[in-house]
User: Fold this.
Amino acid sequence: MLTVENLNVDFTTGGGLLKAVRGVSFSVAPGEILGVVGESGSGKSVTAHTIMRLLPANGDMKADTLTFSGRDVLEFDREELRGYRGREVAMIFQEPGRSFDPIYSIGKSLVETLQAHEPDLSDEEVNARSLRLLEEVHVQNARERLGNFPHQFSGGLLQRIMIAHALAGDPALLIADEPTTALDVTIQAGIIDLLLELRRTRNLAIIFITHNLALISGFADRLLVMYGGLVLEEGPTEQLLSAPRHPYTAGLLQSLVPFGLHHSVEALPVLSGSPPDPLRPEPGCPFAPRCPIVRPRCREGVPAWTSERDGDTSWNHRCVVGGPKSADLFRGGES
Assistant:
């Protein structure tokens, strides 16, 4: 469905050329859920916005391939982009309250969205579709709530309504950019359950961007682990989380706080150091300055992909040292 090969995104800034995404490649199949994880500034959201071709004026994107259903997204003109955004690929954002006009009722905003996709719909058809969309995302008393305004909804309900907006064009792929940020764990679980239901009922493919490895572990089919604008590891979720090949992935897993742990009893696990400066990227592996098993060759150039296979399962990583024992080496701090 979606194929991205060697995607690079730079931003021209007052401080110089900011390299936000460097050589990112992946694909998404119909009905597949792809998780994208990594720290802030790793390039996750920029990659998502680039798929939608939603970059600011100072952004410059290049790719060997960016296709959707076999069509070259890079060659779309303005009219083709209008059809592509929303009707083929839709996107929902974190902090949904910022995505709504406070003086528009929920019903009016849904009407505007539906008419933008299908201007020939009658008023009766638009109103009926708006009601069905709210019911599909399990908003209770949907008919009455169409007349409510954004401030009358909780964050979790607003995220459900944002998903309804995204579904208005009947897309095949939904990009969810940290949609559970600032929601409590029970509301997060409800959003995940809703997305899984939509995958089942609509055969909807999903790209789910998050910081939360625990949240994504039982949700995504495959994971991309991003850092410093690069994909450092990718593969099936279960294998990648149970036996990480890159020390950065192992470090993220080690940083998960176990239930019941308190700082007064035991030190909270952390990744030492800071993420790389995208204005001055590392010449080699971007994780090298923070890696406890770094070797001189790690700094000589961006490591090439190493592919591993276990039966019918394969995954890839960019580590010249860690490999199968990456998690143990990280915890041991071997030098």
Q: What stands out?
A: The mean pLDDT is 89. The chain is about 30% helix and 25% strand. The first helix runs from residue 44 to 51. The longest strand covers residues 16-28.
